[in-house]
Design a protein that fits this description.
By secondary structure, the protein is α+β, with helices and mostly antiparallel strands. It has two domains: 68 residues; 127 residues, Mannose-Binding Protein A, Chain A (Roll). The protein is built from three helices and ten strands; from the N terminus they run H-E-E-E-H-E-H-E-E-E-E-E-E. Strand 5 and strand 6 form a beta hairpin. The longest helix is centred in the N-terminal third of the chain and has 67 residues. Bound molecules: beta-D-glucopyranose and calcium ion. The site of calcium ion has 7 residues, from strand 8.
Length: 201
């Protein structure tokens, strides 16, 4: 009996020392893991910063190269930067005008920047034209044909427009460059837009 009790105590002491050892090993592993994880995290951050930097350099480079190319438009189309524009001589409803652009691999005009508005304005010759802007899906929710965000992009509405005066869900550009919402069924000239073709210099 005495012998067994001694053995038990010895086993218990051994067990306690093993558990203590195990805990200290776990602590070491945990510390090591945390250190590696922090290092890994900072490597990943550094790498993604580098990737973003090279991506923006690459984009810059591509846009510089693009400017060196020679851009061309078909007959009856006018070029501005890397786009071609068609000013119609006949008149159609907004939907028919868009259909006509689509048949020429183009879309109704989307105005993205003041320079583009300026270019277009030069060629209006006092006529009114449809542009690729409509709120026919939901009143007041203006959408550009190509998905360009309306809220964050430039606008050239005439004073007091858009006023939805008589169910007016399509946008026109007046001969003076100001925009007006107009009934989509009205018959107007229209402007199509598509990417220019390049020929290497
Ligand atoms: C109004 C415009 C309206 C247009 C309809 C103009 O007199 O100012 O808001 O869209 O008439 O043709
Ligand atoms: Ca109007």
């Amino acid at each position: 009996m005495k012998m067994a009790e001694t053995d038990f105590k010895m086993d218990l002491a051994q067990l306690q020392s093993n558990v203590t050892l195990l805990f200290s090993l776990m602590k070491i592993v945990e510390t090591d893991f945390k250190k590696n994880n922090a290092q890994l995290q900072s490597n990943v951050t550094g790498l993604s910063e580098k990737t973003n930097r090279s991506l923006s350099e690459l984009r810059n480079h591509i846009s510089q190269l693009k400017k060196k190319l020679l851009w061309k438009c078909s007959e009856h189309w006018r070029r501005f930067q890397q786009k071609c524009y068609y000013f119609s001589s006949d008149s159609k409803s907004w939907t028919e005008a868009q259909r006509s652009c689509a048949s020429m691999d183009a879309n109704l005009l989307v105005i993205n920047k003041p320079e583009e508005q300026g270019f277009v304005k030069k060629w209006l010759q006092h006529k009114d034209y449809w542009i690729g802007l409509t709120d026919s899906i939901a009143e007041g929710d203006w959408r550009w044909m190509d998905g360009t965000d309306y809220n964050s992009s430039v606008k050239f509405w005439k004073k007091g427009e858009p006023n939805d005066a008589s169910n007016e869900d399509c946008a026109e550009i007046y001969g003076d460059g100001g925009w007006n919402d107009q009934s989509c069924d009205a018959s107007l000239h229209w402007i199509c837009e598509k990417p220019a073709q390049f020929v290497s210099p």
